[in-house]
Design a protein that fits this description.
It is a single chain. With 102 residues, the protein is of the alpha+beta class. The chain has 2 domains: 40 residues; 40 residues. Helix content is 33%, strand content 27%. It contains 1 helix and 4 strands; from the N terminus they run H-E-E-E-E. Strands 1-2-3-4 form a 4-stranded antiparallel beta sheet, with no helix packed on it. A hairpin with a 2-residue loop joins strand 1 and strand 2. The radius of gyration is 28 Å and the shape is rod-shaped. It starts with a helix and ends with a strand.
Amino acid sequence: MAGMKALKGIVIGLGVLIIFGMTAIGVGIYQKTATRPMEINGPASASFGEVAVSIGEGCGVTDMVPDGARLYLSVGPDGPCRKIIVVDVAEGRVLGTLRVTP
């Protein structure tokens, strides 16, 4: 009989701990999402307006790949146009150009 009372006390105690733990997790998630703006691929930043990126006569952007605070512009067609331009999207400036050669 005493063993049953002890077991019942342990089960009730663990149930209370589970409820407190789940409440703490819920409050933590709420506080984390309520105090920060949504971040997608990097921190939110002010608008930088319009940025002109020179790609050359007869060339065009063939692909764009975002990677965090950087944007990789693939320029083509093959030949003298073939290059990759790296842009810092947070500041709106060109970081560099990679020439692709055979």
